[in-house]
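Section 5.1 Outputs to date
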Amino acid sequence: MTPITCFAGKNVALFGLGGSGLVSARALVAGGAKVTAWDDGAPARDKAAAQAIPLQDLHEADWHGFDALVLTPGVPLTHPEPHWAAKAAKAAGVEVIGDIELFCRERAATAPHAPFIAITGTNGKSTTTALIAHLLRVVGRDVAMGGNIGTAILDLPKPESGRVHVVECSSFQIDLAPSLNPSIGILLNLTPDHLDRHGTMQDYADIKARLVRAADLAFVGVDDAYCAAIAARPGKGEMVKVSVREKLESGIYADGATLWAAVEGKRERLGDLSGIASLRGRHNAQNAAFAVAAVQALGVSLTDIQRGLQSFPGLAHRMEWLGVRGKVLFINDSKATNADSTEKALLTYSDIYWIVGGKAKEGGLASLEPLFSKVSKAFLIGASSAEFARELDGKLAYESCGTLEVATQKAAQAAAQSTGAQPVVLLSPACASYDQFPNFEVRGERFRSLCQAIINP
């Protein structure tokens, strides 16, 4: 844990006692803050009480007595409407911050030069974060990895000069972190996502841009218009462009499976992804380009980088190879929660028996229509089923299945009848999971267990 000593003696309100919120409460108490915590859900309050977190209904609190409100990132700050706790804090002139901000202030107060790599973007954040951590661990670095992936940032060991924090940051977390200032900031890409929480695409892009603008060294993808515009404007430190679509005169780019660094036209080979199953596809070339650039900036040799790339196991729920039954391959891509992410999977395979659906994102499946020829049949699940059936009607064979269990069984049966060389049963929902599952991990774990029962009956 990282005790938040920089708030010692201060009165801090905290709303939201889920995973990261509860950790934030514990870290503040451990650092000597006077915490008043609340959650609208009784089970969350009971869990906090069992850990001796002070509770008080913040509806009845005197907000003028607080120095800050720590808000869990799952709670709306601005859209579609500010949460009542955020409104109360702002009315009393109380700053509203989150767990990433707490970490940044503690780092500034106790270990300002501790290495801190922060990663954001619409797609690829988790793979890039995990790959950076892996490359650093291969050479024996002390690495603390977490944030929006796995462990909450304040549940990680505290910042120290010999420890590298590798932290995935969501747009919600960045919006609550006004002093976010990583040693190395990474912005992978931007496509429409979470617009219900940010209002417009430009607002979403502006929030993401904060992470790289304040970084000592920033790597920014330039393969979409929003990121290209961000890269064109100066930030606090050097802004390095990254591309997998063009050979840059200056920057980092991928040419097929080879990664290059270029300075005024002169290039240096950084790594080769040929034959690395966990880094297949252009999207993974983008992830690897950022990861390699970041660790090279921390002094990791190209020889060690290549060794680390070859040993990277990949990420659970992201184009995860589950196994083969007969000639049918089963792939778990539960982490594909929007169409742009699903596009990567559809580009990678053919003769696909596609399990798709959940809580739909803006735009639905329209952007994927050019890839429908790669899909033999779609199996629809979740709340989006009726909407997706209308979108697919006349364009792609589909079957409404309702649940993941039914869809997996039907997809496996259909794939087994294929005359293709290697049909693929692919869970790549292009949707959030919240209609049927708590998160994409639970959805992916359920799919994995269903597939394992088919692969090894």
